[in-house]
Amino acid sequence: MDPDTAGGASARPADGEVLLAARALAKSYAGTGGELPVLAGIDLEIRTGEIVALLGRSGSGKSTLLRCLAGLIPAGSGSVVYRGEPLSGANPGSAMVFQTFALLPWLTVQQNVELGLEARGLRRAERAAAALQAIDLIGLDGFASAYPKELSGGMRQRVGFARALVVEPDVLMMDEPFSALDVLTAENLRGELLELWESGQFPTRAVVMVTHNIEEAVLMADRVVVLDARPGPLKAVFDIPLARPRDRGAPAFGALVDRLYGVMTGRAQEPGPALLGRPGPQAGGPGRPTPANTPLPQAGVDGLAGLAEILARHGDRCELADLADELGLEVDDLLPMVDALELLGFAVVHGGELLLTPEGSGFADADVQDSKKIFAGAVLDAAPLVRLIVTSLQRREGTLRAGFFRDLLAHHYTGEQIAQQLETATDWGRYAALFTYDAGPEQYTLDEGGAAWHVRPPRAAAPAG
Ligand code: ADP
Ligand code: MG
What we know:
Blueprint: E1 18-31, E2 34-47, E3 51-55, H1 62-69, E4 77-82, E5 85-86, E6 94-97, H2 109-115, H3 124-137, H4 153-165, E7 171-175, H5 183-199, E8 206-211, H6 214-220, E9 223-226, E10 236-239, H7 251-264, H8 301-313, E11 317-319, H9 320-327, H10 331-343, E12 347-350, E13 353-356, H11 358-365, H12 368-382, H13 384-395, E14 399-401, H14 402-409, H15 415-431, E15 435-438, E16 443-446, H16 448-452
Helix pairs in contact: 2-3, 2-4, 3-4, 6-7, 8-10, 8-11, 11-12, 14-15
The structure holds adenosine-5'-diphosphate and magnesium ion (MG).
């Protein structure tokens, strides 16, 4: 039992008792091309008195980890231990709040809340009393007899909270509970929950919450655990030693947010997000980028060009947190564009700051035709999948079906990932005038830029194709 650093100067300091733990936890899903590893080697302890945030980018396995901790899905290998006992089946000490509320529309608020108690064998009157108490606690009094469709999103999520809290779980689990709500409603609910937590009225001993929102994690958690996009040990663990209520404007708050942005960016050199575990034929040689070891970030040209221009206007550099604020972007939208700029050599991330390179600055300042040329050069250098499409088209003298490339990628990615990879490659290659794409027959055709491009056979022996 490796004692983590206890979390911070909260009014409810963690008292150190380990409630729930993941030990060497691994989990894969069955995919079309083989097993898709999502989690590997995860060690994590949840202690009484703490709020732990699981932070990571889309697809990093946050929900999977939370579901394993809740016993809703079994661990692949390793174990989940609740109060010293390995879990088999649902965790009896946890209750879950979902992003989408998951209410039954034909039941009233009170009946929805009572559902949480169904398995407990309480008498009807006891159930009703407990539900009303939870309804009061969470600010739903007056709505007990309402149906979900009569409620606003914020009120519906309160029902989600009441249904989880009514069972007084040891650990309240929440999977992005605020992300379906508008900004103000979300902020209001966060504040109310934290007040309840601080006041000691909260009928749970620990909270584990999933979020992709860095500020939300720093606002709420005692400890922020960052999951890697690639299956592997936790990328980082941050204690948040700030007293509550926390001030988003405080320098210490901003510093933590910036550090987390730094951790969340940083392009992987090796196989990218959730790449299939099986090494492909080209995966051996270190360094040489291939479509298998260099997944393209999901970012369209418009977005990344716009981001480069905004950076140029800021004097070629900007804090990522400020960019997200200014543009009203979520991390999951912003970071793929940042990845794309980095991959193409147009920008670098340093600490929590994004800096335009001279190439990026040239790209941002050029007129449309020049910017297309600069982009074409960068893409052919850095995006192996685009290069593969171009070289394949050159060899076939003209035209190829998308299915051809889907087959080539099938050993390395899941079906969904393949669609994403091709979508990005198509967007980039079209903009760069390397090829055209006809969505009807799903057909690629060489364009001027692609026809004029000369492969350098000795160095860049074309990837399998
Ligand atoms: P996050 O919550 O961080 O966005 P998830 O845990 O939902 O990530 O998913 C992690 C990865 O596992 C993703 O690539 C996702 O597509 C895949 N995945 C999640 N659930 C399943 C499932 N039931 N079957 C197959 N793949 C899944
Ligand atoms: Mg999720």
